[in-house]
């Protein structure tokens, strides 16, 4: 449900409690709106783009509240006021992300995406730049101005690093394209950079798009050999998952396997040490 508060006209700069200094708003120029972040709130101001504004409002109305979808505070005039957080892509650029954080973020974003799909919403622009991490370390999706809802055509088409799955030259926006892009996001969470970033970082925007699209169409993907989420990522890229429910089942299985403590005899080094010790004690014992 959208909440309207006619007395809240602006997002103001505020004084930091622990420093006593004025915290200035952060301005971000998006493709369809200007975003002003101040403290715990972000004001997304649309100007001259009714279709995206209406689409985003309709998606929020459909989704309501979910832990892994950014929280809507209220809408007034052409401004959508949301919960603020740190951009996931910017956090990943800083590096030094623990395995526990990565797993928590991947799991949370997977739950959020399944919730969207269950409510007949296709995001259509999934990437680490369209996710935030809240103050209590929860990963959330945002930016629904280009999303597809029910049978309405999507107004967005992903970014250059998660542009298209390889099955078709120009596949229609669907749950399958969202899942493919989710794999790209998981790859970025674990490696710190999107697929083919090093190969394309000095290219123009069009050059990046052309290069990555060509790689995907030829089924050339970055190596995931040493990644913990390699099976999830390749499952997304190869079209193994028909739904986010299937993907979440795999994620849950991975968590269970990691949480189970293995007995000592599963570790070769332990078996070898015990065998050598026994042989020293009983030289004639044939082990």
From TrEMBL:
InterPro entries: Kinase-like_dom_sf, Non-receptor_tyrosine_kinases, Prot_kinase_dom. Residues 1-265 form the Protein kinase domain. It comes from Exophiala oligosperma. The keyword Aminoacyl-tRNA synthetase does not apply. It comes from the Eukaryota. Keywords: ATP-binding, Nucleotide-binding. PROSITE patterns: PROTEIN_KINASE_DOM (PS50011). One of its GO terms (molecular function) is ATP binding. The keyword ATP-binding applies. Gene3D superfamilies: Transferase(Phosphotransferase) domain 1. This is Protein kinase domain-containing protein.
């Amino acid at each position: 449900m959208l909440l309207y508060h006619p007395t809240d006209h602006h997002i103001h700069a505020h004084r930091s409690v622990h420093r006593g200094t004025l915290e200035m708003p952060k301005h971000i120029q998006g493709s369809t709106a200007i975003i002003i972040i101040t403290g715990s709130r972000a004001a997304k101001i649309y100007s001259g783009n009714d279709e995206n504004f209406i689409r985003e409002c309709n998606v929020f109305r459909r989704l309501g509240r979910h832990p892994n979808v950014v929280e809507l505070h209220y809408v007034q005039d052409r401004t959508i006021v949301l919960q603020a957080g740190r951009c996931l892509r910017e956090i990943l650029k800083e590096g030094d992300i623990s395995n526990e954080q990565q797993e928590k973020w991947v799991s949370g974003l997977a739950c959020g995406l399944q919730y969207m799909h269950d409510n007949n919403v296709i995001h259509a622009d999934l990437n680490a730049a369209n996710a935030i991490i809240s103050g209590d370390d929860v990963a959330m999706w945002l930016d629904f101005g280009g999303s597809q809802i029910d049978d309405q055509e999507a107004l967005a088409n992903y970014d250059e690093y998660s542009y298209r799955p390889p099955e078709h030259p120009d596949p229609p926006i669907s749950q399958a394209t969202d899942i493919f892009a989710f794999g790209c996001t998981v790859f970025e969470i674990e490696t710190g950079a999107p697929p083919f970033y090093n190969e394309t970082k000095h290219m123009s925007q069009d050059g990046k798009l052309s290069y990555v699209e060509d790689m995907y169409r030829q089924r050339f993907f970055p190596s995931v050999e040493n990644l913990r989420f390699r099976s999830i990522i390749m499952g997304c890229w190869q079209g193994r998952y028909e739904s986010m429910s299937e993907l979440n089942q795999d994620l849950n299985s991975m968590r269970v396997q990691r949480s189970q403590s293995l007995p000592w005899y599963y570790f070769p080094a332990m078996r070898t040490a015990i065998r050598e010790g026994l042989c020293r004690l009983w030289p004639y014992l044939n082990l």
